[in-house]
Design goal:
about 575 residues, 18 helices, eight-stranded mixed sheet, single chain, 25 strands, five-stranded mixed sheet
């Protein structure tokens, strides 16, 4: 429910064409759900173990691992999914337009103009289950929300500025939470209700030690009951979970499965084999290079195609030579044949221009032919002009540099040598430096990363995509790009309540940053998910908030009879 909603983003439909394929004929969902069984998943992050269990760590992957037990005030409304006849794919990683939202821990909420505030009314009767040695069973209250927020903002790892628009938060009564705002912020709903850093945690877990997986406990559909680093996360059904799923007009308690397991496998071929042999029921990320072979070898699988919500690029440190010169950065872009990468590396399954704005963000995204010439040129292949620009910048014979990338990414492991080969053609020599994920992330966060950094980053939402990547000092700004005028424009965007005006401002800022080329802009690939036909009440949905899939998995059931008939 939404009361007095101010359009923070605008409720626009996500196009089905790019994000989800047509279900195959045998994907019929039985009229009556089945309880029991284990759902095993190779998630979109199947190469990475949990990075943290504590929101205090401000870790980007937190919701993906904790969203099964930590809930939020607001979540995606899966009844409005494409599969159920709605407008939304729920494939976008961190964008919930108002029309795609439902109350989770909050029953309703309202943006109030005088005094400027957001009022959340909590559901009654939402319970924390008992956790031996940690806490007794008890009801969630407004004090839990206030405690969570105050602890979160006290963290030394907090992203600077994220909550600067909040004056204070108060529990008005047992079920009412009020955030008083200093000023309007266009991302207020994501930052307060359904974003990366908004899961509600009880004080008892913090007192017991929230970094220890054995202590975590929340109001969600599952409880974390086992964790093996580099192998698996195991979640067990919460028997007192409050929510239900309506099927055929009848409401059913969820979750349907008894157990949910994330499988962690660092090798792409091994995970693909796990799907082929039904060691996992769902594999959420399959490279286009393996799809045709997989469809031939296992024709029973059902498929979903989506445009990745991770943009790939090479960040060039604008605070170091030679990348402090825009001519050099533009030359690097002109040296890369991006259309050839799409054809050869991605087998035609990628979009040339789809980052930092996602094509599904209607009104915020300008297609390539609508961009100014200086931005359009960054997608052209022109090595002769690249050499000319290098000479003008004082590098007629080229230069050399190091480029770091994560060995955890099969795509980047194969892509990096291609980039090296293109750059050699203009006299630029690149030393590749593959890294394990923890070291790769740490070197950027501590600003010790090399002058070039090949990575993928979330599109998140139309405002955050620009802010996190290109404003001064932001921890997710690997190019170290800094322009006070650009920063001032970003601040104005957040203060602007008129969405049409925000759209116009962000389109202009996107074109500006693309021409400044702090990144080598790389294609955005299509990726696939596949699952066995015994997986029911599912159509490839990915997230109900910022990287949070828990409520999706809670609504899936396993057709045990069909699975047995198929020999598994």
């Amino acid at each position: 429910m939404k009361v007095g909603w101010s359009r923070a983003f605008g409720a626009f439909a996500l196009s089905a064409g790019l994000l989800i394929g047509q279900p195959v004929a045998n994907a019929q969902t039985p009229a009556k759900p089945q309880y029991g069984g284990t759902l095993e998943i190779g998630t979109v992050f199947y190469t990475l173990s949990a990075l943290s269990w504590d929101p205090y760590d401000w870790n980007w992957k937190l919701n993906h691992d904790t969203g099964q037990f930590y809930e939020q005030l607001v979540a995606g409304d899966l009844d409005r999914s494409l599969r159920k006849g709605g407008k939304y794919s729920f494939s976008i990683d961190a964008f919930l337009p108002p029309g795609a939202q439902r109350g989770e821990l909050a029953e309703k909420w309202e943006l109030v103009q005088n005094p400027l505030s957001v009022v959340f009314t909590l559901r009654k009767g939402v319970m924390f289950p008992a956790k031996q040695g940690v806490m007794a069973e008890r009801e969630l209250t407004a004090d839990d929300v206030v405690f969570t927020y105050k602890r979160l903002i006290s963290s030394p790892k907090a992203i600077p500025g994220v909550y600067d628009f909040v004056d204070r938060v108060e529990a008005k009564d047992k079920y009412t939470v009020v955030y008083y705002l200093k000023e309007y912020n266009a991302d207020w709903d994501a930052r307060l209700a359904w974003g990366f850093y908004t899961p509600v945690t009880p004080k008892e877990v913090i007192d017991a030690g929230a970094t220890n997986w054995k202590n975590v406990n929340g109001t969600g559909p599952f409880m974390l009951t086992d964790f093996v680093q580099g192998n698996s996360n195991t979640y067990t059904k919460n028997p007192i979970y409050w929510d239900k799923e309506t099927i055929g007009g009848q409401a059913y308690k969820i979750p349907f499965v008894d157990k949910l397991i994330y499988r962690t496998i660092k090798d792409e071929a091994t995970m693909n084999a796990a799907l082929r042999t039904a060691k996992v029921d769902i594999l959420e990320s399959i490279s286009v290079r393996h799809v045709d072979e997989m469809k031939k070898s296992v024709p029973q699988l059902q498929w979903n195609k989506r445009l990745s919500t991770l943009g790939s690029f090479v960040a060039m440190r604008t605070d170091t030579k030679p990348f402090d010169d825009v001519r050099v950065r533009r030359a690097m872009n002109l040296a890369i044949n991006k259309k050839e990468i799409i054809a050869a590396h991605y087998q035609g399954q990628a979009e040339l221009h789809a980052y930092p704005m996602h094509p599904e963000w209607s009104g915020y995204f300008d297609p390539l032919d609508k961009l100014p010439p200086a931005a359009q040129e960054m997608y052209e292949y022109n090595p002769a002009k690249a050499k000319k620009l290098l000479a003008e910048a004082g590098y007629p014979k080229g230069f050399s540099f190091k480029m770091q990338f994560c060995a955890c990414s099969p795509d980047h492991t194969e892509l990096a040598p291609l980039l090296v080969a293109y750059l050699e053609q203009i006299g630029v020599k690149v030393e590749l430096q593959p890294m394990e994920y923890a070291a790769f992330l740490s070197t950027m966060m501590t600003r010790k990363h090399a002058s070039a950094y090949l990575m993928s980053s979330s599109h998140t939402n139309p405002t955050t995509s620009i802010r996190k990547s290109f404003t001064t000092g932001h921890q997710w700004n690997p190019s170290m790009y800094s322009d006070p005028k650009f920063d001032a424009k970003m601040e104005e965007v957040y203060r602007t309540q008129d969405e049409e005006k925000r759209m116009e401002m962000l389109r202009e800022m996107t074109a500006e940053i693309m021409a400044q080329a702090p990144y080598i802009w790389l294609p955005t690939q299509y990726v696939y998910a596949a699952w066995w036909p015994w997986v029911k009440n599912y159509g490839g949905e990915m997230y109900v908030g910022a990287l949070r899939p828990g409520p999706i998995y809670a609504r899936i059931w396993i057709d045990q009879e069909l699975k047995k008939k198929m020999g598994y």
